[in-house]
Amino acid sequence: MAKSRVATVWLDGCSGCHMSIFDMDERLLDLADKIELVYSPLVDAKEYPENVDIVLVEGAVGDEEQRELAHKIRKRTKTFISLGDCAVTSNILAYRNTFRVADVINRVFVETAEGGTSQPSKDIPTLLPYAVPVHEIVGVDIYIPGCPPPADLIYYVLAELLEERQPEFKNRFG
Amino acid sequence: MAQHNIEVSPVTRIEGHAKITIHLDIDGQVKDARLHVTQLRGFEKLCEGRPFYELPFIMQRICGICPISHAIASSKACDQILSVKVPETGAKLRRLANLAQIIQSHALSVFYLSSPDLLLGMNMEPSKRNLHGVAEANPQLARDGIYLRKFGQQIIALISSTGKRVHPGWMVPGGVSTPLTGEALAQIKAMIPEAIMAIQRSLSWYKQSMEDYRDEIRTFANFPTLFMGIVGPDGELEFTDGLVRIIDSSGKIIADGIDPSSYMDYINESAESWTYMKFPAYKKKDYPDNILRVGPLARLNIIDKVNAPLASQEWAEFRELERGVIFSSFHYHYARLIEILFCVEKVQDLLNDPHILGARIRAKAEPNCSEGIGAAEAPRGTLIHHYKIDDNGLVTWANLTIATGFNNYAMNQGVLQVAKHYIKGPEIPEGALNRLEAVVRAFDPCLSCASHAIGQMPLEVRLVGPDGSILSEVRRD
């Protein structure tokens, strides 16, 4: 049987959802027979590849680079999963939406940098005015809420998709 | 010949979003190198206006890898706002959680992120350089790594009544919210013997393989800096409650017994336009003599002793690597393994402590102070949370000084050192690209924490002409 091509992506998140993926523990090794991890913070591919079967996307969309990446992922992927509350609702990231980006930058890089201040400019992506859930940018097929979602639930969704069944679940928020 | 720049983007197998650029001079020799952190979520601002007692819960969300460290530093800052002393059992449970988290975070760093380089070699083809490649080459090592991470995560899930491994809540201003149950204690105890065996096996594997990495040991951010960390009352290894010590590169103590609350007298942060990560440094010296390193290597350099029998022997052996202070950042990996062993031993001690099942776990009070500072040793080094509130208990200001940030200067210099050694002219060999990332990995940066937001680092080497035009690009796909 051909292995499914799976990717995991980390946008504006804390990596907690990726930790929950790792929290499958030994099941990670069992999954190795069924999936090929083609793009992830855990592997060394630098470019999001073509023809991905399943992607798990953690985090909200908070800057220009992430917005572009979200579009690229959507174009190149069959099943797009929003993983965790930041991707699903923008969660804690939305707290910054009541402030202007300039004020956020000012607090971090001017008010609390007594050794020397500098406004971020070249070489780093520009923040969007609001941190938004992924589905505001591109279409999403499956939502897995939770902060982070439990490892068992992520495993269940993956296992169902690998068997070509549509997962059905009610997640407790946690 | 025109000047070139090389860019590595994104850097992978680290905890965060970053890229590396290398600047070449007119002769094609490496002139400068920079590690750019490319994410910002703005926690120092977004907590403004929130009730202060939410902070331990909000700040956990800075990082899914070390949420407990943020919860500890945050709840300690809140303890100061309440002006209370945490009951003994509550303090010990916080300590237990912190030890568990160091174990799981170090296991993630060594086994999940760095062991592909250590076991398979820096020149291995990229598609093999991951945990599955490790599992094929050395199944026992992969299983031990998974077990150690699980051990730490399970402790967190068992002691926090929420049963969650990540963002468990549970740690609150004044202590913790629920006591430890006898059942949870028994379950943790049952896992300890296997954890000890797993870490001892991993340590002997690592020590045998060190011979293969002489070149990396020599060039991976191997230079004199200051070292900083929290130590216990007798100068012993300590992660949760202690005072800050700073030593210079000769090993001389230049500051000791510093209450973290006075951090602003010793530390200042600078910002650069090309990265979202700030540069904290020692305030009383000028650049570059003010550069600090923190984390496992720093801790094992600054302490006088280790109060745990097995880890103490390992530490003594580790210190024999050099005659004085150990400078090579490659040894962060080794230090991490020794700290895992120490933490497993300390977990065992705490579980045998008669107070650990006590019922007094939380001191309650209204805010009695408008400002609070809390610090702890996170897996990656010293972490400081500093808050101010108004009369209604709402946050008006926050400053977070993050472990990975302290290593920012050293990481940048390390990238430069590796670039100079492995890159000769505009041709970039694959092994050189991976070593640029591997030197960053040795520090185990948590960029989520450092920019109070971080993701993954792609690797892209860009050659930029003196006029800023991109002449060529090498990408690793």
How can the largest sheet of chain B be summarized? 4 strands, mixed
Percent of residues of chain A in helical segments? Answer: 25-40%
Hey, roughly how much beta strand do the residues of chain B contain? 15-25%
Uncertain segments of chain A of ≥5 residues (pLDDT<50)?
Answer: none
Give the percentage of residues in beta strands of chain A: 15-25%
Query: Number of DSSP helices of chain A?
Result: 6
Give me the secondary-structure category of chain A.
Answer: alpha/beta
Biggest contact: A-B, 66 and 80 residues
Write down the secondary-structure element order of chain A.
EHHEEEHEHHEEH
- Taken from the alpha-carbon principal axes, the silhouette of chain A is elongated
Oligomer: heterodimer
List keywords for this structure.
heterodimer; A: 174 residues; alpha/beta; 5-stranded parallel beta sheet; two-stranded antiparallel sheet; 7 strands; elongated; B: 477 residues; alpha+beta; 4-stranded mixed beta sheet; 3-stranded antiparallel beta sheet; 15 helices; 16 strands; disordered C terminus
Write a compact overview of the structure shown.
The complex is a heterodimer of chains A (174) and B (477). Chain A has helices spanning 16-22, 27-31, 64-76, 85-89, 101-111, 151-162; strands spanning 4-10, 35-39, 52-58, 61-63, 77-83, 127-132, 142-144.
